[in-house]
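ok here's the first one, seq then struct tokens
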Amino acid sequence: MPSGEFEWSDLRFFLAVARAGKLTLAARQLGVEHSTVSRRIVALEATLGAKLFDRNPVGYVLTAHGERLFASAEAMETLASAAQQEIGGADLGVSGTVRIGAPDGFGTSFLAARLGRLAAQHPALEIQFLAMPRLFNLTKREADIAISLSRPKQGRLHARKLTDYQLRLYASRAYLDTHGPIENRAALLRHTFISYVDELLYAPELDYTPQVARELRPRVKSSSVVAQFMAVKAGAGVAVLPGFMADADPDLVPLLADEVRLTRAFWLITHSDTRTLARVQVAADFIAREVQEARSLFLPNEVRASFGHGRK
């Protein structure tokens, strides 16, 4: 049976635990002791007369009651954020926290160096930046903005295409000096190929190896394209790398340019409930603008062709 009066602020603790899955992590994110979070969750369950989480050694998992409350609590959180943005922040400019999730290659090699400008433009904005090889669940508020390799096919999500980008085969000059030139795809079978760990591929768009050569078997594998890049740079072997990462490095040489050239895309994803919030809009527009201004990094051949056409 429900007991006591419903305390709205308990929902903040409930959402933190639901998203983090662990009491200690939720407490750290909220800036309180884990005992405080536990007490607030117990109080909320007592007030509602329902068990919201199953506790197990792995962490806290939502029950069926918890799942239903999660949807309502998120809707309330969105309304509260919108009200704060519309009324409380009307005279303060863009403020609050925006969390951006991006693949490690794009995040580390491109976006990280540019976020300082976003911070300088909006001093009251806190930017949380997650650059890692994984997908981000916007419905569970793992991020406010996610950079993805594909357009989402379901969910209350809004997508806009940032850009296509090109990938090619690369090896270091030192590797080629030691192991000799690579003149065709068949020659790749005699070299150490670097790629992803198959079972850790977080997007099908990253499964490059069959498109390079069906018989190719990678011998060095990593879940991170940044790690693959560093391995190639150190002379460990050959890999498919994004041009925006590899082309600027004088130690790396593109291989088989006429035979192996892949194109993928980056999409900017926001949740329909939060994408109109000023802090999300500002950050999303900033990322889109930075990508557009640096288009030659992602599509150098297209930009050169457009320039050449304009000169005629």
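and now the second one, same deal
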Amino acid sequence: MSESEAREVGTQIESARAGKVTRAMEEVGREEGMEGEEVRREVACGRMVIPANKRHTNLKPIGIGVGVRCKVNANIGCSPGRSDVEEEGRKLEVCLRYGADTVMDLSTGARAGEVRKELLARCPVPFGTVPVYDVAGRAGGICEARGEDFVAAVREHAEAGVDFMTIHAGLLRRMIPLALKRRLGIVSRGGAQLARWMEARGAENPYYERFDEVLEICHEYDVTISLGDGLRPGCLADASDAAQFAELEVLGELTERCWAAGVQVMVEGPGHIPLHEVAMNVERQMRVCKGAPFYVLGPVVCDIAPGYDHISSAIGAAVAGMAGAAMLCYVTPKEHLGLPDVEDVRVGLIAYKIAAHAADVARGRRGARDWDDAMAEARRGFDWEKQFKLALDPERAREYYEASNVGEGGRDYCTMCGREFCAVRASQEVRGGRG
């Protein structure tokens, strides 16, 4: 969004309610094959968000909502002991090359601010952060923080140009005993830090207590709030329990407070859910939060696949997207094991692009099947170059084809079956014989 655009509007949702189609809405419409007025209506009722901080001047706006293409978020960021600005920059390049719709910087440790500044300056897609990580990473740790420190971190990120922020405001002190009955307790990094602070201070969640202050900041810069699920389940045994749904009820309340303040909002969803409960969770969130966009991590549908959780979670993500989730947060093969590297980011992102596209096809979204039909035509015609061009990961498709067909493949077959046993080629011969 340009500086002139930033000056001419309050927030996207306020403009939409006033009947104004902003340039950001027009851009989203062109990308999604919609009229700007249709986008405006979705933003006005809260079913779509356009994360676009007024200070993120190199941003290409996107729409996140059930009525448009299912989006994919990629998490990157350093940890206290691993990675640096250069490595995270390479991860960002991979995210952009392979089609991440949004990027979140989850950096922790002394270098977090430096990494965030560098990544944001280079990022043309909506950029997200988790401000509580900064609070926890400063001198003395989370338990020494004052209530105002939590709000100050939000302002710091907003002033830097961050487009959306995870705010764990729905985890209340009374819910902690419910979470501690679980097999894995609290697995959200932000949620666990806030629980530590509440127990150490004997006080309520500062993000809940000071939510009006958070709203003022987000309204000033048009930051979209992503209401964090601090009590998301971390294993199948903890899924769909009293703690998770107690927090969801508060997220429903906070959603309405965001709308009343003219602030865009989406709601984050659970991490580990049995496959047969995924759709129920999405439908329940959409009901409780009155249609606000649902942003889900996975969900992971089994706990036994370390090293392959990009697959176990993409299965759940496809079902969640089909049920109405608006954005999927990717999981990499390193989930539960370590900090992802560049290749992990690539593999995780492609797995989630597959899940999101499968959801788009299932929901009959504009143009989704056209892509698959074009690939089918390219396969029928043995048009390998077109197949590579249409592939989600063209480089990998070409790499596999060329490695497997050296000196053996032909224009009208590959080494999977060979010329004589190629089913597509045989079908064409049968069709030709029938005239």
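notes on #2: The chain has two domains: 46-362, 371-433. The chain has a mean pLDDT of 95.
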